[in-house]
């Protein structure tokens, strides 16, 4: 990601984020976890948190957390730790959560229905402003206060509502056509739940969420754990074979 923003965060003084940082992708992926943990800490009344405490709450090691936060110009205070409120502000600024972003959702099947009603969007700075589907029988249906529009209105509404992010929850066969319409309407960020790879211009960011792939990865770990306990002493077949070869 190569976004640029000049100047520092308004009102943050010495703790301000420097000129918009070009963060490693791995760091970007962990910032939402830090933010979630910080919000939970803030709700318990915590004013400060140590790097070890925040790392444990976010599920990472403290050295990695300190390196990630150093990219934001935040190093904490020795013996005190990090100011929870300030760090929340810094991370929300870098993630662009200091402004509410309009989101549209395309595809109102079972998954789309669930996403449309997900409270986590609003609490994290996102607002679903439009719903779309190609099924005429669904058009006009009110889902969580929003009417379902026909897919043919997507391009016009995306421009009118200044859609920042498009969420695709359609069948795989329809996803590319939906992505094309979003791109033509100026939407440059897409969250794709359809089980396919989208072809988009280089200036468009796509995040793919495939639940089947995640289950397959978990299946691998289950298979690996089973193989480690298949032999006496918890040795895998590969390890036992290597030891026999060494001893022969």
UniProtKB/TrEMBL annotation:
The keyword Transcription regulation applies. Residues 33-72 bind DNA. NAD(+) binds at residues 107-112. Residues 96-197 form the CoA-binding domain. It comes from the Bacteria. Keywords: Cytoplasm, DNA-binding, NAD, Repressor, Transcription, Transcription regulation. It is found in: Cytoplasm. InterPro entries: CoA-bd (IPR003781), NAD(P)-bd_dom_sf (IPR036291), Rex_actinobacterial-type (IPR058236), Rex_DNA-bd_C_dom (IPR009718), Tscrpt_rep_Rex (IPR022876), WH-like_DNA-bd_sf (IPR036388), WH_DNA-bd_sf (IPR036390). The keyword Repressor applies. Its main location: cytoplasm. Belongs to the transcriptional regulatory Rex family. Modulates transcription in response to changes in cellular NADH/NAD(+) redox state. Homodimer. This is Redox-sensing transcriptional repressor Rex. It comes from Paractinoplanes deccanensis. The lineage of its organism: Bacteria, Bacillati, Actinomycetota, Actinomycetes, Micromonosporales.
């Amino acid at each position: 990601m190569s976004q640029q923003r000049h100047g520092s965060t308004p009102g943050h003084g010495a703790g301000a984020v420097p000129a918009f940082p070009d963060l490693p992708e791995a760091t970007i992926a962990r910032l939402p976890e830090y933010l979630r943990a910080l919000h939970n800490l803030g709700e318990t009344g915590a004013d400060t948190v140590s790097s070890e405490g925040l790392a444990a709450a976010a599920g990472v090691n403290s050295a990695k957390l300190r390196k990630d936060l150093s990219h934001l110009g935040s190093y904490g205070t020795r013996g005190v730790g990090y100011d929870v409120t300030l760090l929340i502000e810094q991370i929300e600024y870098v993630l662009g959560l200091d402004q509410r972003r309009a989101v549209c959702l395309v595809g109102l099947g079972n998954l789309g229905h669930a996403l449309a009603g997900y409270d986590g969007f609003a609490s994290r700075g996102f607002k679903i402003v439009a719903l779309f589907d190609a099924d005429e029988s669904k058009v006009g249906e009110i889902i969580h206060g929003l009417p379902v529009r026909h897919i043919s209105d997507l391009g016009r509404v995306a421009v009118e509502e200044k859609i920042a992010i498009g969420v695709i929850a359609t069948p795989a066969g329809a996803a590319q056509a939906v992505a094309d319409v979003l791109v033509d309407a100026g939407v440059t960020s897409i969250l794709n739940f359809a089980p396919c790879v989208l072809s988009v211009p280089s200036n468009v960011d796509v995040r793919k969420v495939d639940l089947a792939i995640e289950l397959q990865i978990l299946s691998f770990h289950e298979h690996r754990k089973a193989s480690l306990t298949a032999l006496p002493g918890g040795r895998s077949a590969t390890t036992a074979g290597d030891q026999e070869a060494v001893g022969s």
